[in-house]
Every structure is written in structure tokens, then in C-alpha cells.
Predict the structure.
Amino acid sequence: MGSFKSWRAFEETSKPQIFKISGLWLPICKAAVFKNILQILSLRRERKMKVINFMTCMTLVLAVLMPASIAAADNGVDDFRGRWDFEWVFNDDNPQPPLILYINEMRASLTIPNTYYAAGCMRSPDTNAIMPLSLRATHNPDTSSYEFTIYSTIVPPGEYGEPFLIRFNGTASMYGESVKDDEASGSLITGFDAGEWYGVHHDRRVTKCPSIRDYGLGFDGDLYVHKDLNNNPGYWTLYEGHTVIVSSGMLVEAPDGSQTVVQEYTDIFSPDVDFVGRFRYLLHFEGMPQIGGTYRFTLLDIFGDPIPGTESTDIWYACNQGAPVNINGTYSFEDDALLVWDAVPDVPGEFETGGDPQIGYYQIGISPFNWPGESNYGSAGIASPNHVIPWNTFEPGSPGVPDGTDFGIALGEFQDGVYEVGVFAFSQPNPQFAGVGHECMTYDSSEFLRMDKQGSDLNFYRVGAISGYVYDADGNPLGGIGVDTEEGGYGYCTDEDGYYTLQGLPYGTSHNIVAGRDFCGEHPFEEQTQFNIEVGSTNVNFNLNTASEDQPITIIAHPDHEWIFSIGWEVDSEITMYVDDNADPDDGYLLMMTQNAVPEPSDPAVGTVWFSDWAPFELMPTMYVIVTDGSVTKTLQVEPLSVDGFDHDTNIVSGTAPPLREVGVGVHQTGGDFWMVVSSDADGYWFADFSLQGVDPPNVFDIHAMIWDGDGDATQANYNFP
């Protein structure tokens, strides 16, 4: 981007390229809806860190602020309150016309000592446009000074470019009631340049900030729908907004009066969203919006209060178009790849890729499948049912071939690994109606491709599913039964109707399918296997018999939560549990506890024991757990296992385990439980992708993982939520 020159010196210089923001909205769903298609932030890590501390303070700020204005200074008034005059200059440029800042209110953080927040507004030179500002300051009582950050928006004259965000970092020296004015200075940064500034504070009167609508800078919130034709119901509602107005959230009021606050979000389709040059808000949830209902959007200031003049509305009407199918990828060695698909039929007035105006287009997303890589590619605004994916480096936001706009990185820069390739169909509101932004995005997750990259080799291949139902011997549906391929890695827990689907299996392959595995929980049924089932098969159904043998005795140990559970004992029998550094407690032990077995609630004829409360003793990996009733003895060696992460954007759970081991992973949320079995890699890392299973991160209350030894005993670990 070109540098921003002095407005008043404009006639003496060539017209600059001011920070230009495209008028094309480029949304992408959260990966919880689309697996992990486009979840990696486009920000460089170091640039993100420059702003994250301040943005964190802006988020959920209502929870950490005092409800009333406070007196932070020795002179009995708010130190920052009132008018500040800022002189400022970009690097290697002429001084700019002065800025006037009005700081109206200051509140103390309830959680961070000597930290304060303030709201107000800033007047741009020449246009006199007054835009909101947000301030965060840390007070040093010993020096009567502050380290602080201010965000606001500059509105230049129209011929010099569009409004842009500016951030001031600096130090302020306060002189209280002395004659000398308060002073401040520091550095500034925008989305296109950086510089320095100096400020003077000599007027503590409060100025009422006007509505920003008086200055022609508005805000349009967007309501639209995502639909997966491979799922039922498969509908998700999204709230989104982009802005250069300083804000801490977006308030959405639905037609029924319910309200939602939407937080910041970015991905590779918004490379200009760095919370220095631009803000973006995005939220999704399952279900459809009200057809024809008016949704109201308002930006919120640093205190969570509505910003006057940022009100907007959107009305949603329809989502009827089909989805791209028969996706196919081809590639020649170290050359561009070509992706083609069947064109989605036009829906007059709703989806028209060749219409005037164009109210339909395609979008591509390529991202790591079930592993946390940072290689991503996307293209938006595509009119043709094909697209060239560059092998060589390109600039994000550059034109695609034959059309569209490319984002992310080139295929030649991708890490080695397996990726998911998705194609989506977007529609925009018919200009005859009152909608804004986007209306609908459709896709069919069963049509997505996999792309395997190894060095300079790329291989595209289709994946499919095997599905069916699990019943008992009398034909009653069985929920909570584990179904997987014989080799594992695709595990699924049947729903209340007994339905299962094993997804992501390569087309052209066949598998032995096993029903009755216990990674979804204990059950009384025998396993059953169906052999050589081709991918794409449906109605692969099972009728499970009740196991003839008694409940096997098993042990589960949880070292982090410090408990040991065992099932399968005779009710009321005395059970002794030992923990030792070897499997023979006769030569001494580290811990011993005794209990009488109590009935298992689901099967009162089976006895269970639960050992805990052994502090200060610590159960550690490599220790042995021995449980015995005097005649039968079971032994488990505790193994290292952890659940380290839960990515709310991708719905990927991650952790560590012994190398090359099956790991059962369960996600529990209000209204549903989700399970799968994955394998750890050669370094012991494992990743479980729950993005296809309807997991809703805000409603998740428990995540755990298990690994088993050779006779069914297990070590368990749980995720510690932040």
C-alpha cells in the first residue's frame, strides 16, 4: 500500500493510494460448520501479538469494569478526561493536521490493578468527522504517569481515500492541578503506515459525542445461512460485520427480541482484518433465521454500550440453491492444479452466477484435514465452475484464474500432509429486497475431496461414507453403540435411532465394519462384524446379541483427577486396590485402599468400586494399579495421556498419548454426546476432528480421552477448560 501524505500538501504531490478496502464481502463460515476448511488466521503471529492484549481487554469488558466513573488522579478528577490535541506524523512524511480527542469517561478494571478504560471520540481534521475512541491505560502511581493505547477512526476528505483505523501507543505524564498541561507522546500505526505523535491535555470539560451517522460513515450487519446438503437439518445461522469503526462487539437483536453479542473473528478470507486496519465480527449457531423478520445490528463501545449511528438492519428471505457436486482435481508435477465441478443451477432472483447484477458465486477452501497445520488456500467470488489453484507464490487478494480472488498461500508452499478440499455456492440478496451482504451458502460435505501433498506430489481423491443402523436382537434401535472400521480411526457412536455414519473413507476401498465396540461406553452386547463393505454403502445394519458371558472386570484410572474405577465384581464383595511401581504388591506397595462393591445403576447385578481421596499421594504414569477380590486380580499400568486443546473454530480436540495407539475421544455437550477413535502418530500426537458431528463449543462441558491395554483396562484424561 502507498503511504498516506499530508492532506494540505496534496496539490504539491501525486495522489497517494490510501488504504483501500474492497466493497466485496468475503465471508466464510466457522470451521465448526465446515470441518476445518478455513480456520487458520491470516495474521502473522508477531503482528497479532501487537494488538491482542488491547483487544482482549475490549472483549467482555462489562465483566471487568466498575459501573460508574472513577477518580483516578490525586487532583480528584479523571486524569484523561477532557480534550487532548495530538500532533502526528507518518514515517518519512510531512506533519498531518492536528487531531482533537475527547475522553468522556474512565472506569477501573475490577481484575487488573491500576488499569483503566475510557470511551470518547476523536475529531478528524478538515472533515471534522467525530468518530468513537477506546482507551486502555495502566497507571504508575510513583510517577503519576500512564502507559496507554487509544484506538479511533480518521475520516479524510473523500478525494484522499476512505476512513481508516489508527492506534496510538504512548506514555502520558500527569501534572494534576499544576499550571503545566498534561503531556503524552508515543508511536502510531494504521493499516498502511506507522509514525509518531505528541499530545497536550489542558481542558477537562466533557464533550458529548454525536452520532457517527452525521458524518456519513455507517455500518451494515449481515445475517445469512449456511446449509450442508449432506446433513439433517444442516442449517446454520450466521451474524457477521466488517467495520473501521472502533468497537468491542456487535449486538444483534432478533425479531423475537432476543439479543446476542458477537465477538471478533478473522480467517484467510479477511486478510485486512488485523484489528489495526479493520475489525470483523462473526458468530454461527444451528438453525434457520426467521423468514422476512427484521434483525437489528449495533456496534458496542469499550463499555459494551451501543455506539449511536451504527444501527443497521437485515432481512433474510431464502436459501434454496443446490450445492457444487462432482468435484474433481487434477495436477501436473510442480504446476498449477485445476479444480472443476458441476455448475449449480440458477435459481431466478436468488442464485445467478451470470446475472446482472451477479447474485451468485462459488468459493473454494483447502485446509489441513484432522491435523493442526497452518497451510491454507481459498478463493472467493468465482463465477465459473472451475478454478486454477496456483502452485507458485501469489499475493493474497490477487485475481484468480479464470476469475475470483485468491487468498492464503500457494500449493507449493503447503506443508506435507492430507488436506480437505471444499467448494461452496454463495448467493446475495435480490436487489429488489431489503437484504444486505449475503443470503445463503450451500455445500455438500459428502462431495469434498482429500488432497495428499508429499513434496512436489499432489494427489486428489474422493471420500465417502458407510452408514446404517444398529439394533438389538428384537429389532429395537440401540443408541450409544460404537461402530468403526476394523482397523479403527473412523469411530462413531449411534444416535437414539441407532444410526451411524463412518465418513472420510476413500472411494474405491472396502472395509470390515464392526458394531458393538465400547468406546461410547459400557454395554451388554457382543461385537458383530460385516466384511468387505464398499465405501458409499448405506443400510449396513446390525442386530446385536446380548453377551453370554458375565460383565468383564475392567479398570479405568484417571491420574489427573485422582480416581480409579473398576466394574465387573460381585456385589458386596470386598475389593482391595493397590498402587505400586511394579505389578507385584506382595513385596510392598505405595498405596492400598479397600471398599465393598456396590451395584452398577444400569445393571444392579454387577458390582463397582470407586477409589479416590488419597492425597497427598499422586497417581503417576508408569505406576501399576492392582485390583483384587482375593480370587480374581486385574492389573493396569497407567500410561501417559493428555487432552491439551479444544479449538472452538475447528472443533478439533488434540493431545498426546503413547505413539501409534488408538485413542477414544468423547465430547459431551448439553443435549448430546459425540465419540470417535483416532490414532496417535509416531511422535505421540493425536487429533480428533468433531466438526461434522454437530458439536457446539459454547455448550460443551466435558471432553475426555481413553487408551486401553490388551485386556480392556484403560487410562483416562480430561480436558481442563480455561
Q: What stands out?
A: The radius of gyration is 30 Å. The chain has a mean pLDDT of 83.
